[in-house]
């Protein structure tokens, strides 16, 4: 059988001084620490001899910036795949909370009626479907080697839940998908044989805010 690994990477920390849910909004770049995270993951993949032959990123700026050092480390161009973009969200561009956040405004309450779907944004199942389509394209592209797909927290996490046959509805506080983490899908031929998780930039994580991480 041919062994193939697809690494689903969450982008590095974002510069977001206002603490908004930035979603798919343009212009949200990596912070200085986020850039260091991207460099650290690139160094880790190269140092450990990973057989990366493709680097594919969401079109959003923070994902493209995260992919840059990895592509450079393996002398590759960055490919862009719209299917691995961030989830759509009604609260994009807003702060989310009861105090001064959007939850204090009744007009937003109907969007919270069904957390299982979820009613405030792109359905979990739709995220999984497009992510898995991106994974399959990448797997065919790099069969027998490895690829890094730079995406976003929620799409990566619900994809993992689906592959592990778990419910897609979940507590966001319990996602195992930190900034710059790798969720690694291991295939033997066409069969998924394992899902791994690692944090090559863990030393840079303390103090990272999760308020608007995506």
UniProtKB/TrEMBL annotation:
Organism: Cellulomonas terrae
CDD domains listed in its UniProt record: HP_PGM_like (cd07067)
Alphabetical list of SMART domains matching this protein: PGAM
Any single GO CC term annotated in Swiss-Prot or TrEMBL for this entry: cytoplasm
Domain of life: Bacteria
Name of protein: Phosphoglycerate mutase
One GO molecular-function entry: phosphatase activity
Pfam families xref list: His_Phos_1
């Amino acid at each position: 059988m041919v062994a193939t690994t697809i690494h689903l990477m969450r982008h590095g920390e974002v510069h977001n001084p206002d603490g908004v849910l930035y979603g798919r909004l343009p212009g949200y770049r990596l912070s200085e620490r986020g850039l260091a995270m991207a460099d650290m993951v690139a160094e880790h993949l190269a140092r450990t001899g990973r057989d990366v032959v493709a680097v594919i990123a969401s079109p959003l700026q923070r994902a493209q910036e995260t992919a840059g050092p990895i592509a450079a480390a393996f002398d590759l161009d960055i490919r862009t795949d719209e299917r691995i973009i961030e989830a759509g969200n009604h609260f994009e561009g807003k702060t989310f909370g009861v105090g001064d956040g959007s939850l204090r405004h009744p007009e937003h309450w109907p969007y919270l009626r069904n957390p299982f779907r979820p009613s405030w944004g792109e359905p979990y199942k739709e995220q999984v479907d497009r992510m898995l389509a991106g994974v399959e394209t990448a797997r065919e592209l790099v069969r027998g080697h490895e690829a890094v797909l730079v995406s976003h927290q929620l799409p990566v996490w619900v994809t993992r839940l689906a592959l592990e046959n778990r419910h897609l509805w979940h507590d966001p506080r319990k996602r195992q998908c930190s900034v710059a983490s790798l969720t690694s899908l291991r295939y033997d031929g066409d069969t998924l044989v394992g899902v791994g998780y690692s944090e090559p930039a863990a030393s840079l994580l303390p103090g990272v805010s999760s308020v608007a991480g995506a």
